[in-house]
Amino acid sequence: MKMDKCLGAGGSWNEDSKECIKCESDFMQLKNAEKYSVSAYYDIVNQTSSILDSVQIVPHGYKSENFIEIPAQSTRIFIADMSSTKRSDGHYHLSFLRGKGQMENIEFGYYTNGYLLEKKNKIIIEVDSIFIHPEHGDY
After folding, report:
1. How far apart, in whole angstroms, are the C-alpha atoms of residue 30 and residue 84?
2. CA atoms within 13 A on the CB side of 115
3. Alpha-carbon distances of 8 from 29, 41, 73, 115, 121, rounded to whole Å
């Protein structure tokens, strides 16, 4: 199964074994997104040898109980609820714990009037770097 099809079906992609791993939490991400009036979609790639724990993306200044774990050398989908950001502008906040409990925080992107500028973002987390690649749709 190809990575895009795997992620689209709510699975996790393991880069080492080149296989799709189904997780209840991925299914719940997709199921919960049905309730959101506005959603932000992310493919998060863990290119480290450690598990990334308590991964979360929220609009800056907002809180959420939506967290995921990303195994080493795996890709997971994350869907952020943007419903509460109506008529506001801002950016996103990514936070996660690296293998030994080291908290990482990064602010990125931009939304306006509560709506995203991107169709989806791909976030690649390496040992010493984080890359964010926005994917824009047709407007």
Report:
1. 18
2. 4
3. 11, 11, 18, 22, 14
pLDDT in tens, 117-137: 888 899 999 999 999 999 887
Q: Rounded to two decimals, what is the model's pTM? A: 0.77
Q: What is the pLDDT of residues 71-121, one digit of tens each?
A: 999 999 898 888 888 788 999 999 999 877 789 999 999 988 888 888 889
Q: Classify strands 74-81 and 11-14 as parallel, antiparallel or unpaired.
A: antiparallel
Instruction: Kindly tell me the burial class for residue 102, based on how many C-beta atoms sit within 10 Å of its own C-beta (0-12, 13-18, 19 or more).
Output: exposed
Strand 68-70: give its sheet, edge to edge.
68-70, 52-59, 90-97, 103-112, 115-116
Tokens describing residue 13: 């992609």
